[in-house]
């Protein structure tokens, strides 16, 4: 083979990979819930693509999606053990979706922070099946090939995942209604208004603070309207006076970036249904917060 032939082949491989990359990242991120791990998986897929005999591959994008999904499942299986020893509540690593609202998918499904959090309760194979079907609209036969199982089992995996999601989460509201309620919540939280907080919180609301053991965040979720309201009102005098807030987008939903003296300290995300705010998610771990802030466009 001539040198230029090898170069041309690698150039074509790079072009094919870059064309598929948004979808590859979207698959890996949804299965893993962290952008850092998803990037590692995509990079590993690229290395494998370089070493593959590409003359035998008729559909590069399909081949790359299969490799990525399988790699992500393997990483997710080891990540489950790591997260069991995580200090305090674990939350997904947020991503800025302003440039790519679907995050490489057919639909912006399995992207919401609350959905990613709930998907953590599924095993990695169930999670992958749900992601490939609901976000990427893959046929069951194709998903079965990726998961190396049969079509009937694949349908069962997706059905179980759907039932889990339906049981765990109320129907979300529109982005407009979501932001409106988050604005009311933010005003009540900043002023420490118990009545204001109770008016917007669902009865069984849960507040999660992911500090990763680094910041002074609650190491257990706070549950129930009364408890959450008292908790938020209690730390309002210390937390909010020096804080600056910036409206941003995270995982397809309006969110609030909280900074103090120019340094980001928390990303506030909420899950909202017709009942009110169901989940409050404070991403405070610098390892998750810093990459998100760096990705924001001014």
Describe this structure in words.
By secondary structure, this protein is α+β, with helices and mostly antiparallel strands. Helix content is 55%, strand content 16%. It has helices at 3-32, 35-51, 60-84, 113-119, 124-134, 140-147, 151-168, 175-191, 194-200, 225-239, 286-295, and strands at residues 201-210, 222-223, 243-250, 253-260, 263-273, 276-283. It has a 6-stranded mixed sheet with strand order 2-1-6-5-4-3, with helices on both faces. A hairpin with a 2-residue loop joins strand 5 and strand 6.
Number of distinct beta strands: 6
**What is the radius of gyration computed over CA atoms, rounded to a whole number of angstroms?**
21 Å
β-sheet strand percentage: 15-25%
Tell me the distance between the termini.
Answer: 48 Å
**Strands ordered across the widest β-sheet:** 2-1-6-5-4-3
- Can you give the mean pLDDT? 93
Q: What does the overall shape look like? A: globular
The assigned structural class equals alpha+beta
Order of H and E elements? HHHHHHHHHEEHEEEEH
Helix content class: 55-70%
Number of helical segments with 4 or more residues:
11
Uncertain residue ranges: none
Largest sheet: 6 strands, mixed
């Amino acid at each position: 083979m001539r040198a230029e032939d090898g170069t041309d082949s690698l150039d074509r491989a790079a072009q094919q990979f870059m064309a598929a990359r948004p979808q590859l990242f979207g698959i890996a991120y949804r299965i893993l819930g962290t952008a850092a791990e998803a990037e590692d998986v995509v990079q590993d897929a690229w290395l494998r693509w370089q070493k593959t005999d590409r003359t035998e591959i008729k559909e590069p994008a399909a081949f790359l999606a299969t490799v990525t999904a399988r790699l992500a499942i393997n990483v997710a299986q080891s990540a489950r053990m790591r997260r069991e020893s995580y200090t305090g509540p674990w939350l997904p690593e947020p991503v800025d979706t302003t440039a790519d609202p679907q995050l490489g998918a057919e639909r912006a499904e399995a992207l919401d922070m609350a959905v990613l959090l709930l998907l953590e309760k599924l095993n990695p194979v169930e999670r992958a099946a749900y992601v490939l079907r609901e976000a990427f609209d893959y046929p069951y036969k194709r998903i079965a090939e990726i998961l190396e199982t049969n079509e009937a089992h694949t349908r069962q995996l997706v059905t179980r995942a759907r039932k889990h999601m339906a049981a765990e989460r109320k129907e979300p509201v529109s982005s407009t209604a979501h932001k409106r309620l988050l604005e009311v919540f933010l005003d009540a939280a900043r002023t420490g208004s118990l009545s204001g907080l109770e008016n917007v919180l669902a009865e069984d609301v849960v507040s999660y603070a992911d500090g990763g053991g680094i910041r002074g965040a609650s190491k257990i979720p706070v549950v129930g309207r009364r408890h959450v309201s008292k908790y938020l009102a209690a730390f309002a005098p210390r937390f909010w006076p020096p804080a600056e807030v910036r409206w941003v987008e995270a995982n397809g939903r309006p969110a609030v970036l909280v900074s103090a003296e120019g340094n980001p300290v928390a990303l506030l995300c909420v899950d909202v249904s017709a009942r009110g705010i169901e989940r409050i998610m404070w991403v405070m771990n610098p390892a998750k917060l810093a990459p998100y802030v760096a990705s924001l466009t001014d």
